[in-house]
Fold each of these.
Amino acid sequence: MDCTKYDPMEAEKSFAPDRWQRTPLCGPDKGDCVEINVDRPGLVAIRDSKLADSPVLVFSTAEWETFARALAGGTFHRG
């Protein structure tokens, strides 16, 4: 993926369509979740499961791991 020409509305095409994953915590309706795709080495793609044409945000594995650690550590709080 050429990140110099990154378009969040086109990024989904760079990832295998059958590799999108949701947490089991999404529940039986599978709505209102974030899906991730780790098909591309060194990259993590995320999208909104409830939007058919959701933009796809792409992060490096290091960026994603930093974000996940911050979430797990309680760094982010809803105000």
Amino acid sequence: MAELHEHARPIQFSDLPAAPVPRGQRPRAARAIRRIGLAAARRQRPAVPARRHRARRLALPRQAPAPVLLPLGEPVPQTPDQSGLPSCSGERRPVVKTTRLLAASAGLLAIGLVLSGCSATPTAPAANAHSDSVVLQNDLQYGTARGEKLLLNACLPKGGGEPTAAVILIHGGGFDSGTKDFGGMTALCSELADGGLAAFSVDYRLAPEFAFPAQVNDVTDALAWLRDPAQVAEFGIDPERIGLFGSSAGAIIASSIGTNGTGSLTGDDRVAAVVALSPAVDLTEKGLLLGDPSKMAISSILQYLGCDDFRACPNARDASPLYSVDKTDPPFYIAMSKKELVPLEQGQAMMLALKAVGVPVTLDVKPGERHALELLDEATRASIRQFLIDNLVNSSTRTD
């Protein structure tokens, strides 16, 4: 599952105003608290401890560290693995029971290889290309889970006066690989800050040691950490204007948090905008029939869900952002290719669900097979730039 290489010109957010547009005082709607109950029927795995956040958390499988962020306007080179189905050599995969889903599995290789990261080659983090305009703070600890430190990198615009909007970046890797430093996230973090937005690239716990909802819980903890008054003051951010930017597996986490809870988008576990590149949103047995699914994906998804069989996997629906959509959710920008690893029907299903309840949504469909950060050509970057300006910088916060 390829993503963009880290040699790109910065995303120019030159349209950003010097200061956020003032918002009137609006009452915050009460949040409806939703919890995810982890099923006792799940496969034997370390239990994920209860977290302090009250609202529901979610997540999904594994996308590999990606290639490179290309300069705007340049075509993404196709590798042999991208010209057809990605191939894996000697990749360990969990043993999965034979199920009646073999017919559905024919197409979910789309998600499976994306999320399992078979086709990508790890790349070293790129040096900051914008050191004159961006302040980098790496390896900041935002929490601890089961004795494991949870870290993030902060990319901050220099010379900021008024509190700035912020974006949390969530890497791909199929939920069992990838980090905040790889797969194009280092370059993207710096680029966003160079354009005037505070960006935070986060790590989260990986499968198979940690299953759903650990990954979503971790990113939600990062969101809460950023909203703490100490971090708000240190980073100069506006806690009411925080968005999420997820790629592939990270797009599932972003979509899950974006549809989590109800009411005001200005606090708690809520966010003001979601950018999701190549998300799968329905991880249920029914969802495997969307588009042209595949077999490898099934093992990746089951690994993430902590199940051996979809028919005995009560977590599948809870882990599917599609079933958590409501009218108070934030605006979504979804980008996918017509023939990429995640079936386009997944994105179309999310678009229809959001539209049905009146939530603003853009589904940006590209020709070809590009996946996740590979989608960030010049036109897509311009569209995402405008989306973030409209929904994090210039827009009043919705409280319905």
